[in-house]
Amino acid sequence: MEFIKEFSTFLMQKEIIKFGDFTLASGKKSSYYVDLRLVPSYPHQFRTMVKKLQNNIAEDIGLDSFDSLVSVPTGGLIIASALAIEIIKPLIYVRSKPKDYGTTKSIEGQIHKGMRVVMIDDVATTGGSVVNAIKSLKDANITIEDAYVIVNRMEGADEALKELGVKLHSLANVMQITHALHEQKFIEDDILEKVRKQIEV
């Protein structure tokens, strides 16, 4: 829990998480916005986050249980690239749609039938982009059973991935972050309640 407390404080102080009224990419309304694309601008915290990810994967499933990391552009790909260098594992990524020139493929990188991969992304909301990527991987006979995100917004991604036989892991979920900020008096009771209601919808 020490990581969550320190990470939450960092997110708040650097305005990586903001509370208010926001419209997400999906068009959905939200009482908060978290933009992890800002984290690489702070190398020490970025490396701490990547090392935490490495440790969690090592403890949960073991670093030898998979052949390659996989991600989706762009937010998750930066994190996955840093992690791939740390653990010396290959990295592939899945485009949201196949490119319309050259090889016209949707999966970039060296792949082979039956390879085992672990998905890395930054934030999970409904799981949409990751779900599409997992389907592309399964179509290519690539085995995927685990996905790791930094922040789980707890708005359906767990269930969506479970239906595809993939377990979603996160370094922190939005309630843990919000509680940590509330305990440290960064946010008021009403904000905590708004976030809780948003998750329950």
TrEMBL record:
Coiled coil: none annotated. Its cofactor is Mg(2+). Its EC number is 2.4.2.10. Signal peptide: none annotated. Pathway: Pyrimidine metabolism; UMP biosynthesis via de novo pathway; UMP from orotate: step 1/2. The keyword Glycosyltransferase applies. It catalyses: orotidine 5'-phosphate + diphosphate = orotate + 5-phospho-alpha-D-ribose 1-diphosphate. One of its GO terms (biological process) is pyrimidine nucleobase biosynthetic process. 5-phospho-alpha-D-ribose 1-diphosphate binds at R95, K99, D121, D122, V123, A124, T125, T126, G127, G128, S129. Orotate binds at T125, R153. Keywords: Glycosyltransferase, Magnesium, Pyrimidine biosynthesis, Transferase. The keyword Transferase applies. It comes from the Archaea. Residues 52-159 form the Phosphoribosyltransferase domain. GO terms for molecular function: magnesium ion binding; orotate phosphoribosyltransferase activity. InterPro entries: OPRT (IPR023031), Or_phspho_trans_dom (IPR004467), PRTase-like (IPR029057), PRTase_dom (IPR000836). Homodimer. Catalyzes the transfer of a ribosyl phosphate group from 5-phosphoribose 1-diphosphate to orotate, leading to the formation of orotidine monophosphate (OMP). Belongs to the purine/pyrimidine phosphoribosyltransferase family. PyrE subfamily. NCBIfam families: pyrE. This is Orotate phosphoribosyltransferase. It comes from Nitrosarchaeum koreense MY1. The lineage of its organism: Archaea, Nitrososphaerota, Nitrososphaeria, Nitrosopumilales, Nitrosopumilaceae.
